[in-house]
Structure formats: structure tokens, C-alpha cells
Amino acid sequence: MTDRTLVVLREALARQLLSDTLSSAPEFHRRLDRAGIRCHGADHLFYFPEAELKNIAEMDVSPDIRLLTEEDAALFNAFCDKATEADLDAASVELDHWLVAGAFENGELVSAASMYPWDDTTLADTGVLTLPHARGKGYASRLFRGISHFAIKRGFEPQYRCQLDNLPSVALAKTCGLVEFGKWDVILSR
């Protein structure tokens, strides 16, 4: 991939920040700082390569994974009660999202993933959360690939984002066969 930066701004903000030629991404960030504009913090943005999308569409989903519905509310709430607030916030997994799936260990929901369509596109943004006692057992990767299978069958392409310093999530992306498209950041509301 070419090392380049693409910036999309509203016209008024572009005029404020780009009165002259911009030579680098660090210079752009310095201008944001000088203008008192803060960003959310960059995320890695991951997608499956085309060949891997085909493999996932054709795979059999692991038997310990199934879709979740509103009928699973008690099960999902019990799962959330076992997770930390920080983990719940970082994963952004919600039972009322467009597509939700879970991985089970001896009948217990130990990993949950949810997707929602990204800005009226066929991209499906994905969050995954695994309870601490079930980490390192492959649940998250099987679940991510499983929910991706369900999304692809519905005509959507999985997308995965995580903070740059979230090393377990970066490792999950690589284990699942995702590749980084780039890094993405947004300006916080002014």
C-alpha cells in the first residue's frame, strides 16, 4: 500500500486549516492543534481480501456459534454483567445491532459480536468481546469469521476497526485473515 494520507473536511474548516499548501500529515495535525481541534484517536481499519471473503462465504460456521436475537436478552445481559465497563465500551457490542452472534462454552455465552451497516453502505462495522476467562481459546476468531459469514451471505462486507494501541484486537484481525486498509480518525464535535 502507498504511504499517503487522505483528509476530508467541510469547506469552512478546510479554509481555516488549509490557507496554504500542506506538506505532511504531522503538519496537518499541528494545524489542528493550533486551531484547538481535537481528534478521536486513530483506528486501524481492516477488511478481508477478496479471496478470503469467498472462503468465508463458503465455510461452515463452527457449531459453538449462533446468531442471537432479542429472545437472548437474558443471556446477553448475563454476559454483559461479567464484562468490564471498559471492555463493553471498547467493543461496542449491542444486542439491538443489525446482526449479532455469540460463541458458547458449555452453554455459557463467552464471546459476542455485533455488526451494523456503515453509513448506508454494504460495509458492516464489527465489534467483538470475549470474557476474560475465555480469552486465548480461539472463540473471538471463530466468532468473527462466523458473523462475517452471516453478513456476507446477506450481501455485506465485514469491516473491523480498533485503536492503534489495542494489541489484542490487532492480533485478532491478523488471526482472522483481515488486512489493514489504513488508519482512520475523526474530528471530535466542535
Notes on the protein architecture:
By secondary structure, the chain is of the alpha+beta class. The protein is elongated and about 60 Å long. It has 7 helices and 7 strands; from the N terminus they run ααβαβααβββαβαβ. Helix 6 packs across helix 7. The model has no long low-confidence stretch (mean pLDDT 89). The longest helix has 15 residues. The chain folds into 2 domains: 37 residues, no CATH class; 143 residues, 3-Layer(aba) Sandwich (Aminopeptidase), CATH 3.40.630.30.
Outline of the structure:
With 190 residues, the protein is α+β, with helices and mostly antiparallel strands. The protein has helices at 11-17, 25-34, 50-58, 73-82, 85-91, 139-153, 167-176; strands spanning 43-47, 65-67, 99-105, 108-117, 123-130, 157-163, 179-184. Helix content is 36%, strand content 24%.
Query: Which CATH class of the largest domain?
Result: Alpha Beta
What is the number of independent domains? Answer: 2
The biggest sheet amounts to:
7 strands, mixed
- From the N-terminal CA to the C-terminal CA, the straight-line distance is 32 Å
Organism: Brucella intermedia
Pfam families: Acetyltransf_1 (PF00583)
Keywords: Transferase
Protein name: GNAT family N-acetyltransferase
